[in-house]
Amino acid sequence: MKLKGRVVYPGKAEGEAVVTNIPFSFLGELEPATGEILSPTHEHYGKSLKQKIFVCPTGKGSSVGPGIAYIAKKFGSLPAAMIVKEVEPVLAAAIIFAEIPAIDNLDQDPTEVICTGDHVIVDAENGIVEIVKKNL
Amino acid sequence: MLLTNDEMKMLDGQFGPGVQRCMHMLVQWGELFGAEKMVDVSNAHLSTNFPIDAIIEMSESANRVKTLSTTHTVYDPKYWKDAHGVAVESMAGGYVSGDEENFKLRMGLFEKLGVLPTNTCSPYLIGIVQRPGDVFCMTGSSGQIIANSVFGARAGRESVSTCFAAAITGKTPQMGLLLKENRYAKVLFRPENLDCRLLDEADLGAIGYFMGEIAGTRNAAIEDIPAGLSFEKCRMLLSPMPVSGACVMCHIIGMTPGSHTEEEAFNRKKPEETHIISNREISQIYQRLNDAVSNNVDMVVLGCPHLSIVEIEYIAKMLEGKKISMNVRVVVGISKTMYALAKECGFIDILESKGVIMVNTCVSGTNPFLFSHGGVGVAATNSARAAHYMQRMSGGKTKTFYGNMKKCIQSAITGQWAG
After folding, report:
1. What residues of A act catalytically?
2. What is the pLDDT of residues B393-415, one digit of tens each?
3. ipTM surpassing 0.90, yes or no?
């Protein structure tokens, strides 16, 4: 399946999807040294986002978010790419600052059509997401 | 986005790679949110914990900041180690470094760039003034909502990287709350069976906490707030809204510039929603911000946001002739500038003789005491914002009592929550 969207930050990547329905904040939810999800109440608590294709609805929370994303980049523990239903200013600033290939505003809700474990190819030069279902 | 000649030169790299990187980031950011042009920034307020590598990259070949630039609260590891025996490796998920050398280098870089070391979350208290319409790129959400709602300045949903880029370029994309059409209120809050003149700052903080949660990212408005409400009480009403929700614009009808009436606040449109605030809503918030079980208080936290001279005088007067309990540590957030004024007034001598700890560090979510020597069991505070952050940033380890300043200080004296 292919989706078309808007480029938030250009680049290309592919990998295994980690999908959440919870708006994401780099501060408090990502451990920058390992890329693991920090928040005990999060559905992916303890899972690493490192080199994954991270799919989330939008951003939330602290203005420190881009700072955490930047530190995670230095550790090499960022997601390889992000697919967002719709970015908000702080999440967008983090993606731009840490130079994470990212796409939003797709023709379908990515948190619904992509499942954790799917193999996803992100072309954030042209705004195209290709999904290879894990069970096919 | 339409750029001026000067902005184009910045983007082309004619002012060096740092300015270019900053302008490039701001253009990308602005285009995502439909900004049509850049505007001049009157003040950029910066995070002192911004990573060193990022400061160097983003200021390469830029000799000086291009607008009045000031700094947020500081965690000075050497001061904390020497004065309080506190050493933390890092705070805020690794963002706040506990490395002494790193801190010195960072502050040196800011100084070289001409950034004023205000080191406070409340720069407006120490002569950094916003006029109506001024564009303010503020790190720290309490300052954002106060700038928008009290001073009528324009502060958007900024972050540490966009504020730094604004300092280096003097520009920010015109979007969000910088545009008049996005500043009107959407959600109305109406106090019912409440005499707002009799509410103390903690009652108002509970109201603000309630409002922020419901408003979310939408602009709020509140009516029936008495015109003479003190600036201090205003701050306590507003400052929880961006932490329980993400609201950084609240029209206090009759007080916020341009919002003399409900019609003006809502641009003559109907509110999307109207919510009643009664004693019931206030007491529900009190319950949530009072999650401590034992009555013993280990720490009293005042100064979130950093204290005004009126508040520091009140604390000094209340403690005069009294003694703080052996078991309680009183931690007060205050800028060095305000400290100097309070010293002139004789308040500091009283407070220091009682053992009150006064710091220009953030005393809520990144209060170093929460993260050293096993942390803090129970903290009492008059700040809804501080109670919220202490509960969460300590990972639930610190329980809180929430009530007005008088109760907090009484608890400091007796060692028992006075609630």
Report:
1. 62
2. 888 899 999 999 999 999 999 99
3. yes
